[in-house]
Amino acid sequence: MKNQHALRIFVLEDDVWYGSMLEHYLSLNPDYEVKRFESSTAFFDQLHERPDVVTLDYSMPDMDGSAVLKKIREVNPDIQVIIISGQEDVGTAISLLKNGAFDYIVKDDDVKDRLWNSLLHLKEIVGLRQEVEQLKEQVGKKYDYSKFLIGKSEVMEKVYGLIEKACKTNITVSISGETGTGKEMVAKAIHYNSERQKKPFVAVNVAAIPKELIESELFGHEKGAFTGAVTRRIGKFEEANSGTLFLDEIGEMDISLQAKLLRVLQEREITRIGGNETVAVNARIIVATHRNLLEEVQQKTFREDLYYRLIGLPLQLPALRERGNDIILLARSFIDLFCKDNGIEKKTLSQEAQQKLLQYTFPGNVRELKSVMELAAVMADAETVLPEHITINTAATVNDLLSKERTLKDFEIHIIQHYLDKYDKDVLLVAKKLDIGKSTIYRMIQAGELSTK
Ligand SMILES: Nc1ncnc2c1ncn2[C@@H]1O[C@H](COP(=O)(O)OP(=O)(O)OP(=O)(O)O)[C@@H](O)[C@H]1O
In 143-223, which residue ranges form alpha helices assigned H by DSSP? Predict the structure, then answer.
């Protein structure tokens, strides 16, 4: 069976007897896989197999040792080379070591021992290097999904799976989700974990730019293209070249501009406003919307052809209220972050405060939770955040309540809960305000449908 962690050694030695001796000797170590070559030509033919180490006879008849070393380093600088030389020549040895040889061993009586020790040393280095590579890979994974994006719920795990797929190719990604669910963060996670990570990530919020300016913002303009265009300006498409262009709130794009965007995406080139020259576009596109674009297509406010161009890999971000215990993970992380940034002592989240958070529907999603937790960290004087430190914007709850389709029973529960929250859990007052029997409320509390914490 092949030993996955074996050190792969190529022995390049024209002296058959000497080479066989080295091959036999090194093969005694079960952690070494040894291959022997008698000519440089045969050796270079097999170099694509990427040995970890080469033991190189300095005086090969078909190519001199320095040239072999140079060529190996050009092909793959990770391959370590141990020179084995018939003569002790300090000048040559130094020059070879300077040029990247790992060791220089003279063919004398000690050659086997020295080679053995040198390889042990090297194996340690190669092992460490592999370990570093593996750790880097793990850190890389952690970087995107746990440092940036917090959440372990099943729904978020699915999102991570899609992000991983999106990172591997240039496919257009369309992210949808309510406001504050982390659409921009996801777009960044994709960019910074894709091959384009070292190139620019350029975000444009389509809704935030006046209609008249968006075209020049995206495609740029030439000097004098319109009043106020005093200099030539490149647009976001050009700025994001080789990188990623994130078009946020794409559903807000004016229908006439949609036609222009479609043309750019089809032809992969832009023309700056007022210009004739075309410029190739190589930006990866990620779009986001809080709207249901398919509905917009049906209502003819979004072009169907553009919709199909942009849909690519659809990634639906769940609302915070669908992420279960992620609310607590996020809440804790926001408190920690806030305390750290402001140099105040760490605070913990009491059980009751956690319950209060879990009962709220967070229409503003993660963004809202973040500001609620920052305020809570300020309000809590001691080291524990209690329910009274958590200020929930009840007006938003009503809006959210009515904007969602629910069963009548669900509406009932949410409305009564909203009133209980608003009136400090005063059941009698709530019963009076809603004109319902207090026993109805008590029964629902007992059934666990309502909370008085
Ligand atoms: N999973 C997450 N982990 C940590 N922080 C998050 C997460 N999701 C969102 N956030 C934070 O919530 C805030 C809102 O995120 P972001 O701006 O990405 O949301 P959005 O969906 O793009 O919002 P909008 O719809 O308003 O454009 C940011 O401060 C972001 O750092």
Answer: 154-168, 183-192, 211-219
